[in-house]
Amino acid sequence: MKVFLEVDKGHNAGARYEIAQRSYRAVGRAGGADLTVQLSKEGDQVLDPDDIRRVEDHLHKRSGKPAHSDKPRLGAFSRGRDIRIDDEKVSRAHAMVFVDDDGPSVVDLGSTNGTRVNGDRVEDAELSEGDIVHIGKTRFVVKIEP
Q1: CB neighbour class for 7 (10 Å; exposed up to 12, middle 13-18, buried from 19)
Q2: Cα separation, 36 vs 125, whole angstroms
Q3: For residue 72, is the peptide bond before it cis, meaning its omega torsion is within 30 degrees of 0?
Q4: For 100-122, what is the HEC assignment?
Q5: Phi/psi at 55 (nearest 5 deg)?
Q6: pLDDT tens digits for 55-80?
Q7: Could you give the domains of the chain?
Q8: Dmax (CA) of the chain
Q9: What are the contacts of 41-45 at 24+ separation with CB within 8 A?
């Protein structure tokens, strides 16, 4: 399965981002000259403990296992390059999109303006073909290929 987020509205319109099976990508605001953030050696945003907790809770909920269970853990997924959006309504670390064996999902990282799926504000949600994901003023369409 291949999963893509296609930007059809916003500054990055026309961009297409792939999220590979058993991986995730963080979505956040593109940094300006006045922005100071902690980055990994690969240039990706470093997650704070609250972000990691939100992600772990999401992964445990999707797996159907209790939160104290050891699996799945964030470390079981490979991290793709961050998706950087030129949009002032997007938080620096806004959301993460995962693809596991059950398909794609999104988790909001406590962003200021929230993440919406098909018009509904969500903390986390499963994604399906054709779903519309709003992050800030940017609109993504979910595309799934076998």
Answers
A1: buried
A2: 30
A3: yes
A4: ECCEEEEEECCCCCCEEECCEEE
A5: -65, -45
A6: 888 877 776 655 555 544 666 788 89
A7: 2-30+37-47+77-145 (2.60.200.20)
A8: 43
A9: 42/81, 43/81, 43/82, 44/79, 44/81, 44/82, 45/82, 45/92, 45/93
Residue pair 85/135 in contact by the 8 Å Cβ criterion? yes
83-100 burial: b if 16+ Cβ within 10 Å, else e: bbbebebbbbbbbbbbbb
Cβ burial, residue 146 (10 Å; 0-12/13-18/19+): exposed
Burial class (CB in 10 A: 0-12, 13-18, 19+), 67: exposed
CA distance 61 to 49: 18
Distance CA 106, CA 58 (A): 9
Structure tokens that stand for 52 in this block: 């990691």
Query: pLDDT tens for residues 13-57?
Result: 999 999 999 899 999 998 754 443 444 445 456 677 787 778 888
Q: What does the block give as tokens for 103?
A: 């398909």
103 forms beta bridges with 100
Q: How many CA atoms lie within 13 A of 68 on its CB side?
A: 0
Q: Look at the block and give the residue holding tokens 């990282």.
A: 109
